[in-house]
Amino acid sequence: MFIGQGRRTMPEQSGKVQTVLGLIEPGQLGRTMTHEHLTMTFECSHVPPAPGDEGLAAAPIEMKHLHWLQQNPYSHSENLLLNQEIEAVKEELLCYRKAGGGSIVENTTTGITRNLPVLRKLAKETGVHIIAGAGYYVDVTHSDETRKMTVEKLTDIIVSEVLHGADGTDIRCGVIGEIGTSWPITESEKKVLRATAHAQTQLGCPVIIHPGRNKAAPGEAIRILQEAGGNISKTVMSHLDRTLFDQQELLEFAKMGSYLEYDLFGTEMLNYPFNLDVDMPSDSQRVQALAFLIREGYEDRILIAHDIHTKHRLTKYGGHGFSHILKNIVPKMLSRGHRSHQIQSISSPDGGSAPRDDLYSPEF
Ligand SMILES: CCC(=O)NCCS(=O)(=O)O
């Protein structure tokens, strides 16, 4: 989360974390979820309900429908409107703090209804440090205006979102991402990736990538960033838990040097609606994947989060909420032989200098 020493950063930003309320020291972060959403819309990923399920897809969210909703979260239009749940999210953030959480990286970018004033209000009212994301989500959400922009124009906008504020506000983003890519990566997304790399060079800040839903997608996105001069050691590849399953392919990707993010903790569904060839892993399988990467020496390159982006994952709707990792996954990791120093070393995307004790404190 650190802003590095870039050509365009101001001296006071260098080495600091830029939250929606201003700059903080890295040591103030506390335990950090590096990939969450607090307010957003996800209509761009609506999946038509299966024949016969149209009634369920249009029904109000009720206890008796929760199992269907958990298995078909993208087929229920209202479920895609997390932006309607500000009060519920505020309650969740207060619980997250009680559970030992300190900070959240809010990955909502242009295209999925970023709302910086709401993020600032939530940070003020809950005491959770919130770091907002700059840049653009996937191609289907790009406006005609965005599509026509040059790489230079896109770069200027991303840089300005970090240096001066975004969406007509003075609220500054602190990371670039999540930058959306589809599979295959579209021309407009390639321009945004190149602009991301150029902006990162100017600012020295971390980048977070949403890969397309194909095993070749993470590597291809990293290659484009690399060719445009991006700093891969300060780049996070998200959603690996639905993208890379083969251990050898995972290791090949890990060698490219990005952070490796397992950020769908709490998602337990049979089918991955966007790619029916995928068997979605359980949380236990995610913990096993982390154990594999730790054995292979990548413990300081792993990040974990829940990527909450729909209503049904909030506790208000019977979901696991933002505290699931702290309350359930960390104890599970310990019970499966992960050492507390390894859990502590699941670090922030800071280029390796974060005080890790502050992320996962010694009592674990
Ligand atoms: C905006 C949230 C997001 O992109 N989450 C990832 C969903 S999925 O692509 O892994 O299905």
UniProtKB/TrEMBL annotation:
Its cofactor is a divalent metal cation. It comes from the Eukaryota. Residues 355-364 have a biased composition (Basic and acidic residues). A divalent metal cation 1 binds at residues 35, 37, 178, 307. InterPro entries: Metal_Hydrolase, Phosphotriesterase. A divalent metal cation 2 binds at residues 178, 210, 239. Binds 2 divalent metal cations per subunit. GO terms for molecular function: hydrolase activity; zinc ion binding. Keywords: Hydrolase, Metal-binding. Residues 340-364 are annotated as: Disordered. It holds the Pfam family PTE. SUPFAM superfamilies: Metallo-dependent hydrolases (SSF51556). The keyword Hydrolase applies. It catalyses: N-acetyltaurine + H2O = taurine + acetate; N-acetyl-L-isoleucine + H2O = L-isoleucine + acetate; N-acetyl-L-leucine + H2O = L-leucine + acetate; N-propanoyltaurine + H2O = propanoate + taurine. The keyword Membrane does not apply. Belongs to the metallo-dependent hydrolases superfamily. Phosphotriesterase family. This is N-acetyltaurine hydrolase. It comes from Cyprinus carpio.
